[in-house]
Amino acid sequence: MSSATTTAPESGHGHHHHNPEDRLALLKQIWMFSTDHKVIGIQFLVTTLLMLMVGGALALGVRWQLAFPWENMPFFGLLFPTEGGQISPEAYTMLFTMHATVMIFLVIIPVLAGAFGNFLIPLMIGADDMAFPILNALSYWFMWPAIFCFGASFFFGGGPGNGWTSYPVLSAVPEAAPGSGFAQFFWLMGVTLVGVSSMMGSVNYMTTIINMRAPGMTLFRMPLTIWGMFITAILQAFALPVLTAAGFMLVSDRMLGTCFFIPSGMVINNADPTVGGGQPLLWQHLFWFYSHPAVYIMLLPAMGMVSDMLACCCRKPIFGYKPMVYSMAAIAGLGFIVWGHHMFTSGMNPALGMTFMISTVMIALPSAVKVFNWIGTIWGGRPEFNTVFLNCVAFVSMFIVGGLSGIFMAAVPVDIYIHDTYFIVAHFHYVLFGATLFGVFGAVHFWFPKMFGRRMDETLGKWHFFLTFIGFNGTFFPMHLLGVAGMPRRYADPYLHPYLENLLPMNQFMTICACLMGFAQFILLFNFAYSLFKGQKAGMNPWLANGLEWVAPSPPGHGNFAAVPTVYRGPYEYSAPERDDDHWLQTEPPKSSPVPEPPKPEPTPDSAPVGEDTGSSS
Amino acid sequence: MKWFWCLFFAFWPILGIAVCLVAPGYGWWFPGPAASPLGQRIDDLFYMILIITTLTFIGTQIGLAYVLFTGARRTDPDVQEKAWFSHGSHELEVIWSVAPAFILLFIALYQLDVWADYRVKDLFPHEKMEGLLSEGLHQKRDEHDNMHLAEVTARQFEWRIRYPGFDEDGNLLPLEREPQPTDLYDVNDLHLPASAPVMIMLKSQDVQHSFFLPELRVKQDAVPGLVIPVWFEATKKGEYALTCAELCGWGHYKMKARLVAESDEEFLEYLRELHRKQFFDGVVEAESEEDEDE
Q: By C-alpha distance, which of A214, A309, A224 is closest to A562?
């Protein structure tokens, strides 16, 4: 399918690499229009890491205003000349809206599914590429129109200021948020386009995982990363169309006057009363029907990757592999029936609130099981305290906080008070940053050698971890207290309210920590770029891990494996007592039977055009 | 270095708990004890969950620290023990599935009453209103439909409040759903009687807002197109903050208002004052001007 890119390096450019034009052509062929899953994965990774810096910069704008309200912010005047250095209330709404938008749609979802999903799925299941390589490339290239739309929305009237949740009527009537008129349209187009990108990835991942596993790779021999990606892909496929439809409804409300979400008789900003008959709550239901499962889309792959990394770092099998799989499935299943907990104060039927509350409280159960199993995995292991392991432990430690704070808001009466306060902000940052991003940082360090054939620098990695961890907790832990003190979200100047005045010093402390955390990310970027060229060379299996990706060369060539690997066991057989080695590759034939009899694969006829005894043995 | 990281992961939960313990002393905690009976029940529920989650937090973080320390010990040169080759334990999985399940189920069921009292309209304790404003207010009030004392309409970026007016004999009328010529109006200043449950109608004129009384632990979104009943009971007379908790545009933070909880007499007097201002017929005005001239 993608033979053009395979043959490119050999076909004529062999020893003309010093000619810049040739290099450019080569670069174009390999990178620009590559359909190789590894290239696409790396493209996603680099794009999302850059977007992480953009989203972080927007967050620092929010933090600046909360710490030093109405004072001129450094650099801000240069970027937004119309604001003249001071963050106006309109700019403030834009900042937190776009911070969330960039972080959710352009960083966390694509870095998990796009970057690591793409890179790891074929390698870990022993396939030569994705099932649909061209679709895969399209899923990356649809990110750019989305980035363009989000970027364009900055330049139309100061940017969209309706929050990433974009609740109508505020987001449906241009007069409601003056200045953000066309920006909101671009924002909705951006969301739709990232949705298209995710959907193309999602069908591809499902198909690949179901049909293209190597011989012997039964479902319950799949690494938990693959389970996470698989369940995430299913979630995406079922939840995303609802958001896309809702987005188009909102666009047509704005552009065509359809009034899906606009009730009649609303007098907005002294305009004529609206004619309508729509229902704003409808948007909330549709939006959260996607966006709550999306929370798990932003978490499950990281849970899987952390499980794999922890087992490898501790030289120990995963504790309770099947409970881990089942609890991921349970989280995903329950994830579809908890969306109403975002709407406890919205005025829906109280009986409905009760049912949503019970499903929400119960989703803590599989999460708890996972935490116990991670601790069980470390228990009795021989951890090497490298950057990967530190980030994974931070993942577990932070996820405990994020999970436990979730119980407060699952309890509806308590949620009445803490809803839309900083307690919520603390909660989801502990889950999405504290858990997911630390997992991603670990994964970057762990799979970097496979991506580029070199290791990342350990000292820099540890400094990055140390500063990020301190900055993170210094920024987000106090937010719990702000929430308990009743500080609402999205206030440009909370200190206008006497009961919040005493929170200013704490907000200043948090902003300093946030700056530290932002600074630390430059260490990561530097380490990434530096190690790309100067990092210590890594062999095929630098971590002595068991998974299939470690029997491919680093970096793997096109097609990944020299021969289709055959799988004899699960990926977590570390420190087996009958072996001297503490790792046991999935592809290594069992010693007991000298003539290996590979187990028959699951009924997936497509995946086995193989001479089966060529399974590479190390 | 490995011992440093072990201590690092053991230290931060201790620091976190220490911060939470000193926080109330610095005012980084609830804005005062709950000023309403239902708010008190919310606080009790909060503290119950806080205790359960804190114990879980301490337990899991100790567990994490323990496995880190013992794991690090295992790699010491004098020990060099192989990792424990274990795929898990069925018994442990059962224990740590069933035990949290019971705790969570308990939390889920325990709070249902509070939620119902907050939101199920049939449970509004209207009988407690019997003593309220005994002269004028109560007599025309039928207990199922018309228990509202005020209508709060949120708009960008203020709270507009509509009260019932007086009839010709000076008796307080019930608040009708539709505006009446006798109605009284104010902005950003909600007066209500204390020490009895009161119900208001919550509406929005433009976009979505949220009616938030932090000291009373009351929050309810004002959704365009819906009229939502909200009830609460201020236990003490006094002034309370009223803010908006749902993003409603650039001026979201500016929707600052107050709730004044006062005695029945003060409330009636406040309404009479509103009535006098709103329906002044010039005569009163003229007299008062004369007074000022003198």
A: A214
DSSP string, A240-271: HHHHHHHHHHHHHHHHH---SS--TT---TT-
State residue A13's pLDDT score. 39
Q: Looking at the predicted structure, is the pLDDT value of residue A494 above 80? A: yes
Let me know if residue B292 belongs to a domain: no
Which of these three, B118, B142, B168, is where a domain ends? Answer: B118
C-alpha B74/C-alpha B284 separation (Å) is 91
Q: How many angstroms from the chain centroid is the CA of residue A528?
A: 19
DSSP A612: G
pLDDT at A149: 94
Interatomic CA distance for residues A372 and A15, integer angstroms: 55
Q: For chain B, how many residues are written? A: 294
Q: Cα–Cα distance between A544 and A561 in angstroms, integer?
A: 18
CA A189 to chain centre: 20
Quick one: B160 and B31 in the same domain? no
Determine the Cα–Cα distance for residues A107 and A112; give it in Å rounded to an integer. Answer: 8
Q: By three-state DSSP, how is residue A209 classified? A: helix
Q: Which residue has the tokens 């409970």?
A: A323
Residues within 8 A of B (CB atoms), A 334-353 only:
345-347, 350, 353
Residue scoring higher pLDDT (B171 or A246) = A246
Letter string b/e over residues A48-68, b meaning 16 or more CB atoms within 10 A of that residue's CB: bbebbbbbbbbbbbbbbbbbe
Could you tell me which residues come within 8 angstroms of residue A50 by beta carbon, excluding any fewer than 6 positions away?
none
CATH (domain of A493)? 1.20.210.10
The dihedrals phi and psi of A465, each to the nearest 5 degrees, come to -60, -50
Is residue A222 in a domain?
yes
Which of A375, A466, A501, A546 is most worth mutating to test chain B (most B CB atoms within 10 A of its CB)?
A: A375
Most confident range (mean pLDDT) of A27-41, A515-529, A581-595 is A515-529
| CA triple A507-A102-A198, angle to 5 deg | 145
Q: Choose among A93, A489, A582: nearest Cβ to B250.
A: A93
Asked if A149 and A116 touch (Cβ cutoff 8 Å), the reply is no
The structure tokens listed for A368 are 């708890």
Q: How far from A182 is each of A153, A159, A269, A319, A522, CA to CA, in Å? A: 7, 8, 17, 52, 34
Residue A554 contacts residue A538 (beta carbons within 8 Å):
yes
Banded model confidence at residue B123, pLDDT cuts 50, 70, 90: confident
Distance CA A615, CA A16 (A): 36
**Residue A27 falls within a domain, yes or no?**
no
Please, which pLDDT band fits residue A12 given cuts at 50, 70 and 90? very low
pLDDT tens digits along A509-524: 999 999 999 999 999 9
Which residue, B118, B153, B169, sits at the end of a domain? B118
Determine the residue type at B170: G
Rg for chain A, CA atoms, rounded: 25
**pLDDT tens for each residue of A77-136:** 777 777 778 899 989 999 999 999 999 999 999 999 999 999 999 999 999 999 999 999
User: Which domain range does residue B170 map to?
Assistant: 131-280
- Check whether A540 has a pLDDT greater than 90: yes
A420 touches chain B (CB under 8 A): yes
Tally of domains within chain A: 1
- B177-195 pLDDT, tens per residue? 889 999 999 999 999 998 7
Among B72, B207, B210, whose Cβ lies nearest the Cβ of A345? B210
CA dihedral A232, A235, A238, A239 (to 10 degrees): -110
Interface predicted TM-score (ipTM): 0.93
Q: Are residues B100 and B142 in the same domain?
A: no
**Which among A357, A382, A397 has CB closest to B74?**
A382
Name residue, tokens 């008959």: A277
For residue A604, pLDDT over 50 is answered with: no
Domains of chain B: total: 2
